[in-house]
Specification:
Layout lengths: L1 H16 L2 H23 L10 H11 L7 H16 L12 H12 L1 H4 L17 H7 L6 H6 L6 H4 L1 H13 L6 H20 L4 H10 L3 H8 L10 H21 L6 H24 L8
Helix pairs in contact: 1-10, 2-3, 2-4, 3-4, 3-5, 4-5, 5-15, 10-13, 11-12, 11-13, 11-14, 14-15
């Protein structure tokens, strides 16, 4: 279902950036599946490649990197996601952080130049910069319109290009009850509200910039496809609310005051680390703590 939900965005990205998108995606999926197969074979464990979780991880890694990224760097990311983040912690269902998110951060820190070199959209022949909308905002310059970001005719990774394609995929997953709407609504809503309050207080175009921050960067991809991972997000509804709001708030803090123009990956990773605490807090509130035995 997740793979099916990402197909609209994949097709838009192929149209915007060309067939390099497809070959990079295939490389990431094949590498991720191979690493999982090789680990299971080496450790004499039951093969789990048939559940397609490794394929989903590879697809999400492709969605988080520039389409022009060298293949070998993408393969390094797949190794980090599958072997380091997933298998070393026990395999499917036991990782403490989202593998694709962690791989994206490792690649971003390790290969900063390659991870911030964005291919120009094919229809933007008159463009003078390959910066993403958030990069343009940080450096100062003419921002793309919200409609351009909504449709996808901008620079960035596949997960940043077309908001409408990602929205279609996300709503499909909610409709099929694959994911709960709580985290996406709270994530996107908190980004919108935070941005609106900030720009209203600083004299900016509050509504326009609030929509900009929702459409720009990886908010749509993160909210629907990465912050909703069963393993690394809270179990109970109120926990999901806290998780989603936390992701949105941290994203905006990094965007407005941090060194990096984008904060989605970092926000999800931070909230992944806090998930056990969130689960513990709300489980105790719902079910009560253990009663002490009287002597």
């Amino acid at each position: 279902m997740v793979i099916m939900a990402l197909i609209p965005s994949l097709l838009v990205s192929i149209y915007v950036f060309g067939m390099r998108v497809l070959t990079l995606t295939v490389v990431c999926i094949v590498a991720s599946v191979f690493f999982e197969w090789a680990w299971n074979a080496l450790m004499h464990k039951r093969q789990t490649i048939g559940d397609l979780s490794a394929a989903v991880t590879g697809l999400l890694i492709a969605f988080n990197v520039p389409s022009g990224l060298p293949y070998w760097i993408a393969i390094v990311g797949c190794f980090v996601a599958i072997i380091v983040v997933k298998q070393l912690f026990g395999g499917v269902g036991k990782n403490i952080a989202n593998p694709a998110i962690t791989a994206r951060i490792v690649l971003f820190i390790s290969f900063a130049t390659e991870m911030t070199t964005w291919p120009l959209p094919r229809m933007a022949a008159d463009a003078t910069s390959t910066a993403t909308p958030l990069g343009v905002l940080a450096e100062g310059g003419e921002l793309p319109t919200n409609m351009e970001m909504f449709l996808g005719f901008i620079g960035g990774s596949m997960g940043e290009v077309s908001a409408i394609a990602l929205l279609i995929g996300g709503l499909f997953l909610i409709w099929k009850k694959v994911i709960s709407p709580i985290i996406p609504v709270c994530f996107i809503g908190s980004v919108f509200v935070f941005a609106f309050i900030y720009y209203a207080a600083t004299g900016g175009d509050a509504l326009n910039m609030a929509i900009f921050h929702v459409l720009a960067g990886g908010v749509m991809l993160g909210a629907f496809f990465m912050a909703t991972d069963y393993v690394t997000t809270p179990l109970l509804p109120m926990g999901k609310v806290v998780f989603g709001i936390g992701c949105g708030v941290i994203t905006m803090i990094i965007r407005l005051w941090g060194q990096y123009p984008e904060g989605v990956s970092f926000s999800i990773l931070i909230m992944n680390c806090l998930t056990p605490l969130i689960n513990n807090f709300f489980q105790k509130r719902m079910y009560g703590g253990a009663k002490k035995h009287e002597k």
